[in-house]
Write a structure and sequence with these properties.
17 strands; eight-stranded antiparallel beta sheet; alpha/beta; disordered N terminus; Beta-Lactamase; binds zinc ion; 19% strand; Rossmann fold; seven-stranded mixed beta sheet; 613 residues
Length: 613
């Protein structure tokens, strides 16, 4: 453990007038400048060293120091140059790892360029020329690093942007005890004062009425406004992240995180506390991740909010996932399935037994598709049960059970007791362990229709995931009848999408009929789509239908390539092929499809800690 720097101890000892909680905040906040102290000291020492060296060397060398004496101005310039180099070196050392750049390589490069530049500058006769050479080489390397790391991170983590510089200025002011005014802090934020038709219902059933209810003050008002704003903008997740002197608010719309106006630090922190109270979470616990939930009532809508917190260096981060309880199911015709896939799914829904596994990453609409399928099954004629974590859609005439691992209600346990209720159709939220997998397989083989999900990238690998879980090959080959894989791609905004003439060779490479396709579309951005160029999402699918050849391969000698080859023989289209058909029809763009299928994930998407689907 590193010893606590002195300044932190001092700050920690002085919270006399503050409550304990605020003392904690101050501690976290001030640790930042403290961490930079070591870099500052290094720079001061190095500057002194360079100064002394320059003075003694001045008399003997023949280059820059030929003049025998060195003016104070150039001594200062040397100090600044050295400080910049060392501060840069120290920053790159700390920054490279989180942005996944090779730390050693960059440190070595920046160090060597620095040493080289010092030598060159030393030998050149003219101080101005020395300064120019030095700044070009050292500054060039530095900004090359900045450009490369900036390209990899989301806007608000970029450095040397106006946003970043303003943040540095604001933090510097705060560190000096000056209250910095941000746009959001001028007077009161609209989120704090505007009355919105939102009633909050806590986990324990306590109600916070929509209008005129001022209990809880501005923090709860802000929470209501956030929920309201989110629902208006088709937001699926709200992220609250403490950053310096504010709390960043980010909304996930169509799968992509967007920054919005931040909350002032005080209001943001009290909003986070208010949400923890609503979600029946431990308000004093800030160092361990926690889960909770509450709901919000809007005119004609009930929104369930699943809350998760996560500690971070800057404070407690909070993620909320919004689930519209009143939202209707999407019809199978609107999911994005081709006619052939719809027919196959319809056949599955009508059969008495079998097992359909939906695969794909979280947040890509597996549950929505499974419910569309479930909705095809006559709930009056057949007994449908579900076991889920959490329940995302509420359906009439079926029995839905939520999982609560903490309370000992597991998938496997619930499934066992459910099988005693003689169900015809069973939906299992997710297969995560071999026990659940085994029960599901056996149910599928004993006259039940089983629908479930597995977390794998494509349809063929679901088989191997099951083998990894220790399921016998013969069980897999006899139980599983259909495997789907899906991704959600954003749909081009109809208001602003722009046609262009595609390159012939591109079309040929993509396997599209080059002579038939005149135009493709790309995203532009307008007011309707808030400048993103996209509005809503649609699925692209891969559907593997089990046949005898596939069953034999799985039973005898399953290998990824063999399964894939046999599946292709059945006419399975890959995700990308299915997506290209949607590109050809102008539903989405090539770029968007590649972003989703080739996993060119934006950093923003990777940041999310809590994503359901
Ligand atoms: Zn648009």
């Amino acid at each position: 453990m590193r010893p606590t720097p002195k300044c932190v101890t001092l700050i920690a000892q002085q919270p006399r007038s503050r409550s304990r909680e605020e003392g904690d905040e101050a501690l976290k906040f001030n640790r930042f400048p403290a961490r930079h102290m070591s870099a500052v000291w290094k720079c001061v020492l190095a500057t002194g060293f360079v100064g002394v060296f320059a003075d003694t060397a001045a008399a003997q060398t023949s280059g820059f120091y030929y003049q025998n004496t060195i003016s104070h101005f150039w001594l200062l310039m040397i100090a600044i140059g050295a400080a910049f180099w060392l501060a840069g070196l120290s920053w790159i050392g700390r920054d490279a790892e989180p942005v996944r750049e090779p730390v050693g390589l960059w440190t070595l490069l920046f160090f060597s360029v620095g040493v080289f530049s010092w030598c060159v500058a030393w030998l050149v006769r003219f101080p101005i020329l020395s300064a120019i050479i030095y700044m070009t080489l050292v500054g060039g390397t530095y900004f090359l690093y900045v450009a490369i790391r900036n390209a990899k991170v989301v806007y608000e983590d970029k450095v040397w942007t106006s946003h970043h510089l303003y943040g540095v200025y604001r933090d510097a002011l705060s560190a000096m005890g000056v209250r910095a005014y941000t746009k959001a802090a001028e007077g009161k934020s609209k989120r704090e004062t505007t009355q919105v038709p939102v009633a909050l219902v806590g986990h324990d059933g306590s109600r916070q009425e929509a209008e005129g209810d001022t209990r809880g003050g501005s923090a709860l008002q802000a929470v209501k406004y956030l929920v309201y704003e989110a629902v208006q903008n088709r937001v699926t997740d709200i992220h609250l992240e403490p950053k310096g002197s504010s709390v960043a608010v980010r909304y996930r719309i169509d799968g992509i995180l967007h920054n919005t106006e931040p909350l002032p630090k005080d209001l943001g922190n009290s909003a986070i506390s208010a949400i923890k109270v609503l979600g029946a979470m431990d308000i004093s616990e800030k160092r361990r991740p926690q889960d909770g939930s509450f709901s919000a009532e809007l005119p004609g809508k009930i929104i369930d909010l699943r809350v998760a917190t996560n500690p971070s260096v800057q404070g407690e981060r909070m993620m909320m996932r919004l689930l519209d309880r009143t939202q209707g199911l999407i019809a199978m015709e609107n999911l994005g399935l081709t006619k052939r896939m719809q027919d196959e799914m319809g056949k599955f829904a009508a059969s008495p037994n079998g097992m359909l596994i939906a695969t794909g990453p979280t947040g890509h609409g597996k549950t929505t598709s499974l419910y569309a399928l479930l909705n095809r099954i006559d709930a009056f004629q057949r007994n449908i049960v579900t076991v889920e974590d959490p329940i995302e859609y509420h359906l009439d005439n079926i029995s839905q059970t939520p999982i609560n691992v903490k309370a000992g209600i597991t998938f496997a346990g619930t499934l066992r007791s459910m099988l005693r209720q003689d169900p015809d159709v069973i939906l299992i939220g997710e297969i995560r362990d071999s026990e659940t997998a085994t029960i599901a397989m056996q149910a599928a083989m004993t006259g039940h229709l089983v629908i479930t999900t597995i977390h794998t990238p494509d349809a063929s690998s679901a088989v191997f995931r099951l083998l990894d879980l220790g399921i016998e090959p013969y069980l897999i080959s006899s139980a599983v009848t259909h495997v789907t894989s899906q991704r959600l791609v954003r749909v081009l905004c109809n208001n602003c999408k722009a046609p262009y003439r595609p390159n012939k060779s591109f079309l040929e490479k993509a396997g599209l009929p080059a002579d038939k396709i005149e135009v493709l579309y790309k995203s532009v951005g307008c007011e309707r789509c808030q400048g993103t160029g996209f509005y809503g999402r649609i699925g692209v699918f891969e559907l593997l239908v089990m046949n005898d050849e596939l069953r034999d391969i799985i039973k005898t000698n399953p290998s990824v390539t063999e399964v894939y080859r046999a599946a292709r023989k059945t006419g399975m289209r890959t995700l990308e092929e299915d997506g290209l058909l949607k590109v050809a029809r102008g539903i989405t763009s090539v770029k968007e499809l590649l972003r989703v299928t080739r996993g060119e994930k934006t950093q923003a998407a990777g940041n999310s800690q809590q994503e359901g689907d």
